[in-house]
Design goal:
alpha+beta, 2 domains, eight-stranded antiparallel β-sheet, 12 strands, flat
């Protein structure tokens, strides 16, 4: 009998343990993969957009290089999914609410969606925070952040603000970046920002070229009457 098969030997124990570890490892990886899979059906992006032309008032020939981001959610106990889409030629996009089978419930053409995450829970329901590019302009590149909610019929915007703004035009050059924070109860949004002045300087504020400055803080309060955020009084 060889030493590898001798009962009680170290090699025998190793040969028994190694397959067990491999099996446990495989089971763990399989469970993780199953847990990470989306519970809802994600539609084929291009076909879905083609079928949604009327809902987002799209009149282009086709959707160049379409992309989509998904975020599973629950609304009134129902499994749904948010889908943020973007495409090029020119850069544009839209936000959609889908059922778990991938069928469109509602849509809004906010612009090219770059990021989705949940916002605060308000009386009107769980909000969605969307970072998006609403459009393009010569000499300017900007993005917005919006809080939206599904009101049972449509996607409603509760708050909208610049997330970033880069301007490079004759006599004007700056780069603005903003950060926003929700209060624990979700009733207030505080926005802070910083401006990096370009080579032209900022004559309006008296800031010299190449300097960075804090922008005035802004605070927005929730209005239960208007069901939206407005500048606090």
């Amino acid at each position: 009998m060889s030493s590898l098969s001798r009962p009680g030997s170290v090699w025998s124990m190793k040969l028994t343990i190694i397959p067990l570890i491999a099996a446990l490892s495989f089971a763990s990886e399989t469970q993780y993969a199953l847990a990470s899979e989306p519970a809802c059906t994600r539609p084929e992006v291009n076909k879905f957009l083609e079928d949604s032309r009327g809902a987002i008032q799209f009149e282009g020939t086709y959707f160049p290089s379409p992309e989509a981001r998904f975020l599973p959610a629950k609304i009134d106990g129902r499994d749904v999914q948010w889908m943020g889409a973007s495409w090029y030629g020119p850069l544009s996009g839209a936000i959609f609410l889908l059922d778990c089978d991938g069928n469109r419930i509602a849509a809004s053409n906010l612009g090219a969606v770059k990021k989705l995450r949940f916002g605060p829970i308000l009386r009107v329901g769980q909000t969605l925070e969307i970072t998006h590019i609403p459009g393009t302009a010569a000499g300017e590149s900007y993005s917005n952040v919006s809080l939206v909610v599904f009101d049972g019929k449509a996607i409603k915007t509760l708050w909208d603000h610049l997330a970033s703004d880069s301007v490079a035009m004759l006599g004007t050059e700056y780069d603005d970046r903003f950060r926003w924070q929700y209060s624990p109860d979700g009733q207030t949004i505080k926005v802070t920002g910083r401006r990096k002045v370009g080579s032209s300087g900022d004559s309006e504020n008296g800031w010299t070229a190449g300097t960075t400055h804090a922008l005035p803080q802004e605070t927005y309060c929730w209005s239960g009457v208007e069901n939206k955020f407005s500048t606090c009084r």
